[in-house]
Amino acid sequence: MFLLSQKGLDKKVSSSLSGKKVLLGVSGGIAAFKAVSVASALVKKGCIVKTIITRNAGEFVRPLTFETITNNACLTSTFERKEQFDVKHISLAQWADLFVVVPATANIIAKIAHGLADNMLTSTFLACTCKKVVFPSMNTGMLENVATQTNIRTIVSRGIKVVEPTEGMLACGDVGKGRLPEVDDIVQCIFETLSVRTDLKGKNVLVTAGATEESIDPIRFLTNRSSGKMGYAIAKVAAERGARVTLVSGRTDSLTVPPGVDVLFASSACDMYETVLDVVEKQDICVLAAAVADYTPKVKLDYKMKKTDSNMILELVRTPDILASLRGYVKKDTFLCGFSMETQNLLENSKKKLMSKNVDMIVANNINDVGAGFGVDTNKVNIITRDKVLDIPLMTKEKLAGVILDNILNYIN
Fold first, then answer.
1. Strands (DSSP E) along 182-291, which ranges?
2. What's phi and psi for 38, nearest 5 deg?
3. CATH architecture of residue range(s) 6-194
4. Which residues carry out catalysis?
């Protein structure tokens, strides 16, 4: 592992963006002035940029500004007449590699969510089949309003990337969430979006995630602290890279199923075992990230267990070992990856698990490490195979998902 210098990173970004066709939509918020800098930065990195601004955006930034920077016409109306005839919102939709909305007001997000096409920006957005990224920017109260949050969840569920605004001083004088990210961060996000690979296209990928729940009675159950974030991140990234993803999910921290992912829900360890076996035969890659209970109550009551003054002994029995069972059900060349969570002897215990479960890879982490393990958005792991151990530094779980999939592809290609 190595880190690029800022100069090296800029060179890599410029190389990847060169020749990319970016459609920049600008809606009517005070942050529209930042869109000018975004357009300028993208042009400098070799992008071909065309802009569409709403009538309200034109009150903040004039079309001529964008035209001068991009050397392309800035469109403001669906009914503009040009010398060359074409249906402009359709031709632009077919032209673009990426549609970016900077800034996206509450109004424009609502229109996108409900499929409205009442101006050039929304008409083109609706017609576009390319990748889309939306950068919300508005007053904190508007952002946090249940209507706006519902609209954001709606467009995310349709595969549109929404980048959370930052916190700080807003134009209205309030301090809170709603600021547009800095220009460099927006350009970096565009680079990352356009750089997403399709190297998993044609692959069937099974991912398990979350925690199982082992019922004691109708009210109580045994579980663990897994949030499901790691497994959901792997499912999301695999789908973005072209895989057909089946996610078998236990309990999570109210996570949203990633776009393009088929999900099956399983409550207990036995439920998850049966669900996995139902779909595993056709899989090319299996990544079992769920935290599955090793034991379940021997007796599951159908009535509430009443409290007494004496101590209670709860007898537990072993649950099916999903990971260890898979080799007998999958195709000969299916890649099996499991997870290991330890508090001591991480490498020793995880290497034993690799061999005893007869799998190809174990992703191991120690929950005592700061920023790793349950409930957080980051992780620090060791990727263990039969011939090597990789020490992966602390990073976001979504970024780590990409690293895990990269290493799997190194073995199967």
1. 204-209, 214-215, 221-222, 244-249, 261-265, 285-288
2. -65, -45
3. 3-Layer(aba) Sandwich (3.40)
4. 172
User: Do residues 288 and 339 touch, judged by C-beta distance below 8 A?
Assistant: yes
Fold of 204-412: Rossmann fold (3.40.50)
What is the average per-residue pLDDT within 385-412?
Answer: 94
CA distance 121 to 75: 9
Whether the Cβ atoms of residue 409 and residue 199 lie closer than 8 Å to each other? yes
User: Which pTM was predicted?
Assistant: 0.70
Mean pLDDT confidence for 225-247: 94
In this predicted model, what pLDDT tens digit does every residue of 291-324 receive, in sequence order?
A: 999 999 999 999 998 888 889 899 999 999 999 9
Pairwise pLDDT comparison (368 vs 136), residue with the higher score: 136
Please give the order of strands across the beta sheet that includes 161-162.
74-75, 48-53, 21-26, 98-104, 131-136, 161-162
What whole-number distance in Å separates Cα of residue 353 and Cα of residue 382?
Answer: 13
Residues of the chain with CATH 3.40.50.10300: 204-412
Instruction: List all residues 6 or more positions away from 305 whose beta carbon is below 8 Å from its beta carbon.
Output: 216, 217, 220, 312
